[in-house]
Design a protein that fits this description.
Blueprint lengths: L7 H14 L14 H13 L7 E8 L4 H6 L9 E8 L4 E8 L4 E7 L10 H12 L2 H9 L8 E7 L15 E8 L11 E10 L4 E7 L37 E4 L2 E4 L2 E8 L3 E11 L2 E17 L11 E2 L1 H5 L19 E8 L5 E22 L6 E17 L2 E10 L4 E9 L4 E2 L9 E5 L2 E4 L1 E11 L7 E9 L12 E8 L16 E10 L5 E8 L13 H4 L7 E5 L21 H4 L11 E11 L9 E12 L23
Antiparallel strand pairs: 1-2, 2-3, 3-4, 5-6, 6-7, 7-8, 9-10, 10-11, 11-12, 12-13, 13-14, 13-23, 15-16, 16-17, 17-18, 18-19, 19-30, 20-22, 21-22, 23-29, 24-25, 24-26, 26-27, 27-30, 28-29
Length: 660
Amino acid sequence: MPIQDVPIQSEVQREIEERAAAPHIGSTHPLDPLTAIELKDAVRILAREGYLGKSVRIVSINLVEPSKASVEEYQPGAPFERKALAVLLDRARRASSEAIVDLIGRSVPSVTPLPSDVQPSIMLDEFSEVEQAVHRSPLFQAALQKRGVTDADLVMVEPWSAGLYGTELTEDQGLRRMRALCFVRSEPKDNGYARPVDSMVIVIDLYKMDVVRIEEYPIVPLPPEPGNWAREYIPNMRNDLKPVEIVQPEGPSFKVEGNQVEWQKWKFRVGFTSREGLVLHTITYKDGAVERSILYRASICEMVVPYGDPGEQYYRKNAFDIGEYGLGMLANSLALGCDCLGFIHYFDFPLVDSHGEVTPLKNAVCLHEEDFGILWKHTDWRTGQSEVRRSRRLSVSFIATVGNYEYGFYWYFYQDGSIQCEIKLTGIMNTTALAPGETSLYGTEVAPRLNAPFHQHIFAARLIPSVDGPNNSVVEVNSLGVPTGATNPHGNAFVAEETLLTTEKQAQRHVNSATARFWRVVNPGKKNRLGRPVGYRLVPGENCPPLVQPDAPIMRRAGFTSKQLWVTPYHPRERFAAGEYPNQHPTGDGLPVWTKANRNVEDTEIALWYVFGHNHVPRPEDWPVMPVAMLGFQFRPDGFFERNPAMDVPPPAAASNCCH
């Protein structure tokens, strides 16, 4: 029910009785995401205390994660606190705040107003409300008539975050805004992105949910072709594919208890937030009889998609899909046999909308095993002895739809102690129209008179290492050729040069393929049997720097993209690379601000931030739906184990049709 209609008095006594009987309803560990009952509790408590009402929207409610120390000291069955952070927006007062809700004490111990120039992220409800507001606007109807569009029902309105660029009109000052682009479907189920209405941008006031104005540009005819992609529009499907069956007759090798997963020698917890989506906690690997810690927390904490067309109606297309929208709120319910194959375990996570309604998100996260080719192999041609092992990996994933794009986020665990993060990009490109005979310097014509602008997808991973304990350091390793001379008379030598990164400024680094650069996270207090600190290696994958200029307005908010590696002291409030509230932020926040203090990052609790990007120069083959593009990184043991930890993986069974 809507938040203003919560029957507070009748519910309170029942909830008190339920809490007395089971204070942690549905949650069995301090890091468990908020349950549906806990979310409903939070809404009721906020309403009872007078913080909700007709003009107040709930931007988000998420678990306040307990301190690392309390998590590490926690024993099963012991009591633990449950607190929620609620971000609230009062449209009537044009004000927002953060409220801490104590779910055990059933109180609101603190409410902190946010600065007047800070805007919380855009709510899912606001997307549909913007489209409705645009369609009922007389300005919109008149603009369509001017462009010869006769059926407004076929017009697809796509709201974009407006950002803040220093060129805003006076009438925009202090507004919570979105900028909407328009596309015309040729029929109700058509791909709207095939026919962009390039000649207008609609500015909407989200407080009043009214159209402020329509910015008009030279009219360009609609591209001539539809871009249908659904199965009913594909006339000649392939008919030569034979079934591939993924069969595990004895069930999976993993075990799930609540949100805790055990597989092979791995153990970790699966979490979820409305902003980041999938979060992994307390990742350990059992080495002999010892359970050794590797990562305390891992997530993709921010992303930005800068577009490279300088046109007046385009240059503001720079969406922060995590900080401005929230990937968890946009997560898909995954389908067996389509999104995931094999023996699947799904995790469901409830979400709360801006009106306080709690809804289940079924099958939000998929857990399954995959065959991944050869793990290791050797043949001794002298003795004829040959051994091979098949690699199996555990996949944990979720998929979010952000307007036109789909993003799949995958974390893989391997039998050799390695972790991989992979992001899969697919969906439909955002497009612009070309006039007859026109070309663009800033995009690719992917269909007649249809342009797909150049753009980038830049992600930030936040890793909290705990490599054999909380105090870690980061060492940069560069492979360098040795000049020909007395120590290298034949010119063939090269060395792996190590540099300890001791401060935040020193630890702001770029990837460098010319030196095969990687970074080693080590524990200075723990040595392996060879006398070196135990460690894990961060190995870059595909990457590229931001191609916008350093003085571009977008870089005020996306300053984290200027480096590919950042190291900071661990701080629980330093969670997002672009800061807590990048939406319309006037000056920018996050990593560039925090690291000005140049704090020590040697032999202490640290946060490791890895920034990686995909540069998308579109192809005609990316239309109408682009095949998956992949990028990511690996976190691999480097002196952590005494030898290859996958030596004890057994050979394939004779009945598995594999050599052995």
